[in-house]
Design goal:
Layout (H helix, E strand, L loop, with lengths): L1 H29 L3 E6 L6 H13 L8 E6 L6 H9 L7 E4 L3 H7 L13 E5 L5 E6 L7 H5 L5 E4 L6 H13 L3 E4 L5 H9 L5 E5 H7 L1 H5 L3 E6 L21 H16 L4 E3 L5 H14 L3 H9 L7 E2 H11 L4 H11 L3
Parallel strand pairs: 1-2, 1-3, 6-7, 6-8
Antiparallel strand pairs: 3-10, 4-10, 4-11, 5-8, 5-9
Helix pairs in contact: 2-12, 6-10, 10-14
């Protein structure tokens, strides 16, 4: 019995030492260095807003408290940044990417220009699950789904390019529930789409309610912007009267298009990730730091003030979701390709 107690005490001590050693190693590595977080879209948009808020609090949760800077690398609807993260960024834990999950669906469908493999990135987490809506200006004259369906001309919506929420959601809605839509792209980000809609160049756009209610708050409050349809399967309390797209889907194929083209992607739409080959120790350190940041009291206060919704997804969950995406049957992949990749 005594030998068993001694064995357990030794094992526990070993585990404790191992954890302390890992923390000390991470502290030694990150101390005095700079972690660069690269956002794939333009300053002022939803992705940028979330990332800059996270970036202001991330350092204190990384051992060694490195500096954290946020940069933007726009182009090709996020493909430019994803290719950079895959082919050029050093796998040392000092470069973190933030892009859009729809790009992995684009990879699955063989979209042009993609030089990355989403299955090989190391995922550290996401701050929220997106709930895409379509927001249109009062000037567009489209204030309801019924008016939209009756429109004599396609309604111009802004997009950032295939793989981006604004482009993909609009195309899936057009294909599944027959909303008359013309996607105008590429804009550098949702901030540019917002400006184009306000100038009358566009009728509006479709992207996350979490972003729209933050960045377009003044327009919503003044009644200049209306949320016309919600593309997720369940209603949201703060826009409870907005109709669901799935309620207008008349066939099983239409419902599956909504599920695989919007619902599933929205769950992993804001991934933060590291280049392939990053050591597992550093992946775990940054996963923990990211998760702890999203629970940080000062960050939560800033998120509330900025109207940023939080529904965290862990790095492990993202890894699983991306893996499952690549198991879709060929027939559905072909249909999604027909809808999402313009010819």
């Amino acid at each position: 019995m005594l030998w068993m107690i001694l064995f357990l005490m030794t094992a526990i001590a070993g585990l404790s030492w191992s954890g302390s050693a890992a923390a000390a190693t991470a502290d030694d590595f990150f101390k005095g260095k700079t972690v660069r977080v690269i956002v794939a879209f333009a300053p002022g948009g939803g992705f940028d807003t979330y990332t800059r808020a996270i970036g202001r609090h991330l350092s204190k949760h990384i051992p060694g408290n490195p500096s954290v800077i946020v940069d933007n690398m726009t182009g090709a609807g996020g493909i430019t940044q994803a290719n950079y993260m895959f082919r050029q960024a050093k796998p040392d834990g000092l470069t973190v990417g933030n892009n859009i999950g729809g790009l992995f669906l684009q990879q699955l469908m063989g979209a042009k220009g993609i030089e990355f493999d989403g299955k090989q990135f190391e995922y550290i987490g996401a701050p929220a699950v997106d709930h895409p809506v379509c927001a249109l200006t009062k000037a567009s004259g489209i204030g309801s789904v019924e008016k939209w369906l009756a429109a004599k001309e396609p309604v111009k919506l802004g997009g950032v390019g295939p793989g981006g929420t604004a482009s993909d959601v609009a195309r899936v809605l057009a294909a599944s529930i027959k909303l008359p839509i013309k996607v105008v792209e590429p804009y550098k980000g949702t901030a540019d789409i917002k400006l184009a809609a306000e100038s009358g160049e566009l009728a509006g756009g479709c992207w996350a309610w979490e972003s729209i209610k933050s960045m377009w708050r003044s327009g919503l409050e003044r009644g200049e912007i209306s949320v016309v349809i919600l593309a997720m399967p369940k209603r949201l309390p703060d826009i409870a009267k907005v109709p669901l797209a799935v309620d207008y889907a008349k066939t099983e194929e239409a419902r599956r298009l909504l599920k695989h083209g919007i619902h599933d992607i929205a769950t992993m739409t804001r991934p933060y990730f590291l280049p392939p080959g990053t050591s597992k120790d550093r992946v775990q350190v940054l996963r923990k730091a990211f998760a702890d940041t999203l629970k940080d009291a000062e960050f939560l206060a800033e998120a509330k003030k900025s109207n940023l919704d939080l529904e965290p997804v862990s790095g492990e969950e993202l890894e699983k979701l991306v893996g499952e995406l690549f198991k879709l049957e060929a027939g559905m992949v072909a249909k999604l390709k027909e809808v999402l990749i313009p010819r």
